UniProtKB/TrEMBL annotation:
Residues 47-440 form the Major facilitator superfamily (MFS) profile domain. This is MFS transporter. The chain crosses the membrane at residues 90-113, 120-141, 147-164, 185-208, 214-233, 264-285, 297-317, 324-342, 348-366, 387-409, 415-437. InterPro entries: MFS_dom, MFS_trans_sf, TM_effector. PROSITE patterns: MFS (PS50850). It comes from Frondihabitans cladoniiphilus. It is found in: Cell membrane. It is a multi-pass membrane protein. It comes from the Bacteria. The lineage of its organism: Bacteria, Bacillati, Actinomycetota, Actinomycetes, Micrococcales.
């Protein structure tokens, strides 16, 4: 099989923007540059073709270490707070403390990322992460840790994440250039989500074997390793653009640009709903392990391992997509939400754990699609600000969702909590589909599949 490509504008909605929206977009930044995109499903040998770029190989290895270790710390600190306080609400406060800075300063982080070297910024942020993680490890291993200390370090970690996360997203284009950007974004997005699936599974095993303190220590060491790997990047082989000139209103211009493109703003809206309700698994699974199935930290690690298995499958499938469209994100959010809602009704640990595999796969597929669509739809000159908005809703949404879901679980029970965590995003996807259909972006078609009528969402052309 051969892979055919053509040079066409980056993925945009079939419906043209209004003149006012287009004018605002052009005022925000130059038009999106043409990009070579894959039109047919790539052969298996090209599944990870971006990894042929030496800089991207080094980056991906370091990124996987950073994502996995970072999520190990997050899960370990959530479990530690649960042990210290015996309160789901306190766990929610921990989640809020880590992600609240993104709500307040996330967009400012995008402006900083657009102005300065992404590599330099990440070397600084990873060094600070190492200091914070090793400090928390020392407090925990010495037996002097208290919940408020965990909250404080989580908040400081969140402040650093304001810059680290958008830099992590945008640096990909500097590493691989335009030719393999689509595949690199998919690989990078998969690593981002994969670390969020594998890290908790490893953390569960560490919690059972040696306790939370060593999980924090490992994260500190991993951050130092990432700094070393960043120094190994060959700067001469990186594609860099001159930063935009300093000017008033750059933040507003970035927001105006994002709102003017349906393929940016709708994924951002749907990811926001999923982040608030669907990405609260640490709060929910910790309660399932401790209060429903009574399997402790070992069961908590098992549940996260099931999600990791699904995520590994989803990561492989995501690199082989022939196309990514707005409907891909809408359907993905709906399917993921429905799977989580169904999981809430499982009466035994075996079907519960097996359904978590499907949740992990669907979640990674949809989040990778939304991340790729947003990046491919945005001009490189404004991509840092666009991705800071995306990361703001992805991580900042969890700052709202953490205490909210903790309260729901404490008040109505964990089964209702899991039902809500999936049901609300599924409902949001349904509403988005209806709104987009009314605006002409999507249409509902009836097709015959083996002589059985089935509903199919398609994007309207013309």
């Amino acid at each position: 099989m051969t892979t055919s490509t053509s040079t066409i504008p980056v993925i945009t909605s079939p419906t043209e923007e209004t003149a006012a929206a287009r004018a605002a977009t052009l005022a925000a930044s130059p038009p999106t540059e043409p990009m070579s995109i894959v039109q047919t499903r790539p052969p298996w040998r090209h599944t990870f073709i971006a990894l042929k770029v030496p800089n991207f190989r080094i980056w991906t290895a370091g990124n996987l270490v950073a994502m996995t270790a970072g999520w190990m710390q997050r899960v370990a600190q959530d479990w530690l707070v649960l042990e210290l306080t015996h309160s789901s609400t306190a766990v929610g406060i921990t989640v809020a403390a880590q992600f609240a800075p993104m709500l307040f300063f996330g967009l400012l982080g995008g402006v900083i990322v657009d102005r300065f070297s992404k590599r330099m910024l990440m070397m600084i942020t990873q060094s600070v992460f190492a200091v914070l993680a090793l400090g928390l490890a020392a407090l925990t291993l010495s037996g002097n840790v208290e919940a408020w200390m965990v909250w404080g370090i989580a908040f400081l970690t969140g402040l650093v994440t304001v810059i680290d996360n958008p830099a992590r997203q945008v640096i990909v284009s500097e590493l691989v250039g335009q030719k393999n950007l689509r595949n690199a974004i998919s690989v990078n997005s998969s690593v981002f989500q994969l670390g969020g699936m594998i890290g908790p599974a490893i953390a569960g095993a560490l919690l059972l074997a040696v306790g939370a303190g060593w999980a924090f220590a490992i994260n500190g060491a991993a951050c130092i390793l990432v700094v070393v790997m960043l120094t190994l990047l060959n700067a001469s082989q990186m594609t860099r653009l001159a930063p935009p000139p300093r000017a008033a209103g750059q933040l507003r211009a970035g927001l105006r640009y994002a709102v003017g493109k349906p393929t940016i703003i709708w994924p951002v809206i749907l990811v926001a709903f999923f982040a608030v309700f669907g990405l609260t698994m640490p709060v929910i699974l910790a309660t399932y392990a401790s209060s429903v199935f009574h399997v402790g930290a070992g069961g908590y690690g098992l549940f996260n391992s099931m999600i990791a298995i699904g995520a590994l499958t989803g990561a492989l499938l995501s690199t082989r997509r022939a196309s990514i469209r707005l409907r891909t994100v809408v359907i993905g959010v709906g399917v993921t939400g429905l799977l989580q809602a169904v999981t809430s009704q499982m009466p035994a640990i075996v079907p519960f754990a097996l359904l978590l595999v499907t949740v992990g796969m669907a979640s990674l597929l949809f989040q990778t699609a939304s991340n790729s669509l947003v990046q491919l739809s945005s001009n490189i000159a404004v991509r840092g600000r666009v991705m800071s908005l995306y990361v703001l809703v992805l991580l900042g949404g969890q700052a709202v969702g953490g205490p909210l879901m903790g309260w729901i679980v404490s008040t109505f029970g964990v089964h209702i909590g899991m039902l809500v965590s999936g049901g609300v995003p599924a409902l949001a996807a349904l509403v988005a589909g209806v709104v987009l259909a009314r605006r002409g972006h999507l249409t509902l078609q009836v097709r015959m599949l083996h002589h059985v009528p089935t509903l199919h969402i398609a994007q309207r052309v013309g």
